[in-house]
Design a protein that fits this description.
Blueprint (H helix, E strand, L loop, with lengths): L2 E7 L20 H9 L4 H5 L18 E6 L8 H8 L17 H11 L4 E5 L2 H15 L3 E4 L4 E7 L5 H14 L8 E8 L6 E2 L4 E4 L7 H7 L3 E5 L2 H4 L7 E3 L4 H12 L5 E7 L1 H7 L4 H20 L5 E6 L18 E6 L6 E7 L4 H9 L12 H5 L1
Parallel strand pairs: 1-11, 1-12, 2-14, 3-4, 5-6, 9-10, 9-11
Antiparallel strand pairs: 2-13, 4-5, 6-7, 6-8, 12-13
Length: about 375
């Protein structure tokens, strides 16, 4: 039985990429700045080599066992879909479109006609700020809030007592069908909220409606080989269910880790791909380094349980998809390297993986570990893990 447990710590970048100036992100370092400001205790990640990853600013553990490095992003952009697709072997030559001035008026008019409601907003904003500004107007007047960000997203916020989740999801499905071609954003995102004016909060009913992958991914390769290709959290949304044989759309890190460990207790050959979103959604965008650090600590504290469920031929990979530096300016993602930590039960020493030229090296390695021929035009580091 050979399995790979590939887990993305959402937005946990570890230092600006060489082209960060193109994105206004010179100086960003999510992991390093969280460590510098909050000093979280992460002993179990350190045992896998966290302190040897350039940019993390974490003290090295001299007794670390595992494989540690970082990866560069080749694809244009710094969003969730782009990062996850490249991790899975699919690189983008052109970034998904963004809308810093909001979506075109003719599109909004057509969209309002399609859903049967007037919408408000239509501008870039943070999720919490837009609710403070327009949440009550939306609730009272039954007007869905449409907004975007520096990422390629079309977000729709509705109060759950006014528009039940299924109605909000219908609005999103319509938007996804309409947002194609030059308007083809990476994700349409449902953002339900509850509460009263001055105390609105977003709920766990978030759903992402992504474009389907535009090419072959690791998930396809695993599924076509007759193995299990399992998603946890928003993986099914990011890949539009393509290439998956099973999924648990758990919400929040605690539920996602529980779902991940439930899969670990099953006998199967293949891949379990997990996204742990709290570092991004709850703390990165809200610029809360303490909350960000606490989320990392929770993950770290669960690692002994996770490692105890590993079989002799299982591989654990912890990585990220982009940055979202909570100490940086603005509320958007940041263009960064991602950390790369690997471990399997037969390892006896620490291996340096250096700086990988593309996130897709992860897909190549997972494929080789599972005995598949696919390399996705990238370089596997499987030999370093078993040497």
């Amino acid at each position: 039985m050979k399995r790979v447990f590939l887990t993305v710590l959402d937005a946990v970048g570890c230092g600006e990429l060489p082209d960060a100036a193109l994105y206004g992100d010179v100086g960003a370092n999510t992991f390093g700045h969280v460590v510098d400001t909050v000093h979280p205790d992460l002993p179990n990640m350190a045992k896998m080599g966290l302190g040897q990853v350039e940019g993390t600013h974490y003290p090295p553990d001299p007794d670390a066992v595992g494989a540690a490095g970082r990866c560069m992003e080749v694809s244009a952009g710094k969003d969730t879909t782009t990062g996850h697709w490249e991790i899975a072997g699919l690189r983008l030559n052109q970034a998904f479109p963004t809308f810093p001035d909001g979506f075109p008026a003719d599109f909004i008019a057509a969209y309002e006609k399609a859903i049967g409601y007037h919408v408000i907003g239509n501008k870039p904003a943070s999720g919490t700020a837009i609710l403070e500004e327009l949440g009550e107007e939306s609730r009272v007047n039954r007007t869905p809030i449409v907004y975007t960000s520096a990422d390629s997203v079309f977000q729709i916020a509705c109060h759950e007592e006014v528009f039940p989740r299924e109605e909000l999801y219908r609005f999103c499905t319509i938007a996804r069908e309409m947002l194609q071609g030059p308007l083809g954003v990476g994700r349409v995102i449902a953002r339900p909220y509850i509460g009263q004016a001055g105390a609105f909060t977003r709920t766990s009913g978030r759903r992402d409606f992504s474009l389907p992958p535009i090419g072959r991914t690791l998930l396809d390769a695993v599924k076509e080989a007759g193995m299990e290709s399992l998603g946890v959290g928003k993986i099914e949304d990011i890949f539009d269910h393509v290439g998956l044989t099973g999924s648990n759309h758990a919400a929040g890190n605690a539920a996602c880790i529980d779902a991940w460990m439930d899969y670990m207790r099953r006998d199967f050959d293949g891949l379990c791909f997990t996204n742990l979103v709290d570092t991004d959604m709850l703390w990165g965008h809200r610029r809360d380094p303490k909350g960000f650090a606490d989320a990392l600590i929770y993950i770290d504290q669960k690692l002994p349980e996770i490692r105890a469920l590993m079989g002799p031929d299982d591989l654990l990979i912890l990585t990220a998809d982009h940055g979202c530096d909570p100490t940086f300016r603005g509320t958007d993602h940041t263009r960064e390297h991602i950390p790369l930590l690997c471990w399997h039960p037969k390892m006896t020493k620490l291996v340096s993986l250096g700086t990988r030229k593309t996130y897709a090296d992860i897909a190549a390695t997972c494929a080789e570990w599972l005995g598949l021929p696919d390399r996705f035009g990238a370089a596997s580091f499987c030999a370093e893990l078993i040497g």
